[in-house]
């Protein structure tokens, strides 16, 4: 990934004093997962271009980090965009390569710190997966930038594949060097909506420090704060309250229960679903339980209330969801004894995993509909053949019930990420086939209030191993 910054401040070579990087030298900064190279491909008294080139070592990235790549791709550790896009890696490189400039210090020419200079910025690849060009403009334009973006296609040889989520970003502004670097430091990982390292309380301090003087009055400060802190609710609220000088924030509708009637109905259904799954797991007599696709940990919190469960593991493909689960479980405040009962780890249901073995029961709540239909056979082998818990409780939506949701048009799934939704006959056929193939007995039951000729909102299969 490469960042180019050009200035036409005269004399342009004076800018090297602010950056503490001599225009005639190539310099390299060691990073935890690679190197950052700083050089000047073009220099004169009238124009100076600085390049920051990151060379990320993909092997070190996998060894040293549990959080590289897409949350929804099983091989994300090995095949991802992290070495090529401007993200939190770029922020770390900026902070390490230009520490004095980012902190507003210049020993040799201190008068240049407050000097506004004309800058043109080019970033070869920026990921904006949720917001695209509109988000890029909403983040940079209020800070005075002239913004130009070029959206990249997925593959020049296959134009029918369409555009990607990646952009070449061009910015123009006249500001101080410190302001420019602080904007890039905060906004690049905000656009990317991800971090390559663990996010904790310390991130609030970094955000407020680098956002000093501009973030408080930015019209998108809430979105910047939440995305920079990867949507961790408690951290985001703390940061926003400090930005608001201690004022209590108005709660978001979804946070304090100010939901629409449809949302209330869905929340109520999900709560009933989790309660029923917990009851079935209790009745099974299992002491050790896997929650596969645990998300934010709502079922985990229910299971922790019962002493019967001595070992509970939450597994999710999304590291970000696991962070949310840890936060909502208040894991850091748990007693040592409670911590011994709970384990969270990242994993995929598509590949055999030794960590899934040895549990007496497993819950798979509203998960399989997020899988591609042609991957179900792999999921079956992972869970029913290799992990093989004594009891498996699995739920999925009942497509027939969708006609009762006023907001759903005919043929539309309940969630944009659903790859399929089964009616009752299709689910029963699949469940009975799985039970027969892997030596389980299966009982199928409705979840929620049943309607005539439609059934219940969700459907549940309880698999018991035949031994």
Provide an overview of this structure.
The chain contains 16 helices and 14 strands. With 467 residues, the protein is an alpha/beta fold. It folds into 2 domains: 196 residues, c-terminal autoproteolytic domain of nucleoporin nup98; 205 residues, Rossmann fold. The strands form 2 sheets. Strands 2-3-4-1-5-7-6 form a 7-stranded antiparallel sheet. Helix 12 links the parallel strand 8 and strand 9. Helix 7 runs parallel beside helix 9. The radius of gyration is 26 Å and the shape is elongated.
The description of the largest β-sheet is: 7 strands, antiparallel
CATH H-level homologous superfamily name of the largest domain: Vaccinia Virus protein VP39
Shape: elongated
Number of strands: 14
What separation lies between the terminal Cα atoms? Answer: 55 Å
- Summed over residues and divided by their number, the pLDDT gives a mean of 84
Count of runs of 4 or more consecutive helical residues: 16
């Amino acid at each position: 990934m490469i960042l180019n910054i050009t200035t036409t401040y005269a004399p342009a070579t004076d800018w090297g004093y602010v950056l503490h990087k001599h225009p005639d030298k190539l310099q390299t900064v060691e990073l935890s997962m690679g190197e950052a190279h700083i050089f000047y491909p073009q220099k004169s008294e009238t124009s100076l271009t600085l390049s920051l080139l990151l060379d990320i070592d993909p092997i070190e990235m996998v060894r040293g980090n549990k959080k590289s790549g897409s949350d929804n791709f099983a091989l994300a550790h090995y095949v991802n965009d992290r070495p090529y896009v401007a993200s939190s890696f770029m922020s770390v490189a900026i902070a390490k390569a230009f520490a004095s400039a980012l902190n507003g210090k210049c020993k040799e020419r201190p008068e240049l710190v407050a000097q506004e200079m004309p800058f043109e910025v080019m970033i070869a690849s920026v990921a904006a997966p949720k917001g695209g060009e509109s988000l890029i403009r909403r983040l940079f334009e209020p800070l005075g930038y002239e913004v130009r973006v070029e959206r990249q296609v997925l593959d020049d040889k296959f134009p029918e594949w369409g555009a990607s989520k990646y952009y070449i970003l061009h910015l123009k502004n006249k500001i101080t060097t410190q302001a420019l670097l602080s904007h890039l430091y905060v906004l690049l990982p905000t656009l990317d909506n991800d971090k390559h390292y663990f996010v904790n309380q310390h991130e609030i301090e970094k955000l407020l420090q680098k956002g000093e003087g501009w973030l408080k009055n930015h019209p998108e400060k809430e979105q910047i704060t939440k995305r920079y802190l990867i949507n961790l609710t408690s951290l985001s609220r703390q940061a926003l309250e400090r930005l608001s000088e201690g004022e209590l924030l108005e709660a978001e509708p979804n946070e304090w229960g100010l939901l629409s009637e449809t949302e209330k109905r869905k929340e109520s259904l999900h709560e009933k679903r989790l309660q029923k799954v917990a009851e079935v797991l209790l009745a099974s007599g299992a002491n050790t339980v896997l929650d596969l696709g645990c998300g934010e940990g709502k079922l985990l919190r229910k299971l922790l209330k019962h002493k019967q469960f001595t070992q509970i593991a939450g597994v999710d493909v999304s590291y970000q969801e696991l962070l949310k689960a840890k936060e909502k479980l208040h894991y850091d405040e748990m007693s040592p004894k409670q911590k011994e009962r709970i384990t969270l780890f990242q994993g995929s249901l598509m590949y055999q995993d030794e960590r899934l073995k040895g549990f007496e029961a497993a819950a798979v709540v509203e998960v399989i509909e997020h899988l591609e239909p042609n991957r179900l056979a792999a999921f079956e082998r992972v869970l029913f053949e290799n992990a093989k818990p004594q009891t498996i409780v699995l739920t999925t939506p009942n497509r027939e019930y969708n006609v009762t949701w006023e907001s759903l048009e005919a043929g539309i799934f309940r969630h944009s990420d659903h790859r399929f939704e089964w009616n009752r006959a299709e689910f029963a056929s699949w469940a009975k086939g799985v039970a027969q193939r892997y030596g389980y007995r299966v009982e199928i039951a409705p979840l929620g209030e049943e309607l005539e000729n439609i059934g219940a909102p969700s459907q549940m299969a309880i698999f018991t191993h035949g031994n």
